[in-house]
């Protein structure tokens, strides 16, 4: 590929994740987007990934059948000349650090909100990661075909709860059974929910923002209400600001119904106008920026998905390509080890098949079959100098368990398993100061269950896990640490790098500690 071809290919890439709280409609909207992309799938491919009752056994079974969850982790399709990569972020019970890390590999995010519920906890958590990265966020207020909250309320909530300005691109005309359409100020038209008697789907607006054609809608109170709201927002609301959108300080808001496929296509098309192409990536020492159009290849591992089937020990390391072009069979250097690796067994992701990838460029995701060589955060590259990216952030766990080997004679496999799974980023490991007990931390319960299952299946090590419940983890400056600060309400532990931290019973315990030791600095790592 010539430099120009590479630049043109990179220019077409749009890589994003959809974030939402369970049941807001992420699966439904994803399926719609895939349909627009003309991706032919078995019915319910995306659906199979989630199930209302996502018990551990279901998940294991899905994993064992392989394919389904992996292929739906990354979905790729072409639309209007763009190559779109959607990365799945499970917002469900399998919510884990993987979900957070996936957001490190995207250039923008789509936030789906149930318009009857507004901003829910999982959305908020995922939003905060996007905010930290400063990536553009586009909002889809879903389920307009149902009675929901006041649109104005929903917009205000974005600012109040998330601290991001909302810029409504369109405005609902009615809601629920009364839904008539969308007043679309951005496209200067009204999109009708149901075609009118003349078979029209769209009615143009004139420069004053009034209907430019004769329609019964002009006399409809719901229409005038929407029109007035939009006018008021035009005058008093936040002005459209492309820079703020780019930095994640303003979010364009679209209303619609994923289920009724209303407003989704407009959303997709407008989104593609503003969604950024692949961005540059900073190197660890901060003195270089890797441009996506750099001819040398580079990328990093943001997720490792292990096969739960003990007969096939392979895992897939998901790599976000940051620069250059991937070619089948190419040799790369793994930065951490300095080893040369040949990338021959690689997969790209279509919605229903795992196709062998021939070429992929910056912005794309490739899956490397891995026999245990890779760790989360690993960089791979070609050429010189070596490429080391900024460290992926570690996420503060909220749930903890004490873990031990059931059979004390099998300490060796127990330690081996724990070390490997911790390296892989499956869970985080802490050691209690006084007792030396092993404590695992996670952001989602499923991480523990997978850990336990894999210890048994892959390392033949049966583990006992004693739930400790939710804790507030706070790191302390080692110079300020006095082991006597540990009490019954906090547990002093070390993280895997040996840094001390307290696991507080709750916020109250933390406050009590702070009152007692006002000079001690406690930090919550994100
Ligand atoms: P996810 O958990 O965010 O992936 O949500 P789903 O896409 O599975 O949707 C959750 C439920 O809401 C399902 O029963 C969907 O059929 C329903 N749903 C999704 N979008 C809409 C919508 O626009 N209107 C209505 N009425 N229901 C919707």
TrEMBL record:
InterPro entries: EF-G-like_DII, EFG_III/V, G_TR_CS, P-loop_NTPase, PrfC, RF3_C, RF3_dom_3_sf, RF3_GTP-bd. It comes from the Bacteria. It holds the Pfam family RF3_C. Residues 11-279 form the Tr-type G domain. GO terms for molecular function: GTP binding; GTPase activity; translation release factor activity, codon nonspecific; translation release factor activity, codon specific. One of its GO terms (biological process) is regulation of translational termination. It is found in: Cytoplasm. GTP binds at residues 20-27, 88-92, 142-145. The keyword GTP-binding applies. GO terms for cellular component: cytosol. Its main location: cytoplasm. Keywords: Cytoplasm, GTP-binding, Nucleotide-binding, Protein biosynthesis. PROSITE patterns: G_TR_1 (PS00301), G_TR_2 (PS51722). PANTHER family: PEPTIDE CHAIN RELEASE FACTOR RF3 (PTHR43556:SF2). Increases the formation of ribosomal termination complexes and stimulates activities of RF-1 and RF-2. It binds guanine nucleotides and has strong preference for UGA stop codons. It may interact directly with the ribosome. The stimulation of RF-1 and RF-2 is significantly reduced by GTP and GDP, but not by GMP. NCBIfam families: prfC (TIGR00503), PRK00741.1 (NF001964), small_GTP (TIGR00231). Belongs to the TRAFAC class translation factor GTPase superfamily. Classic translation factor GTPase family. PrfC subfamily. This is Peptide chain release factor 3. The gene is prfC.
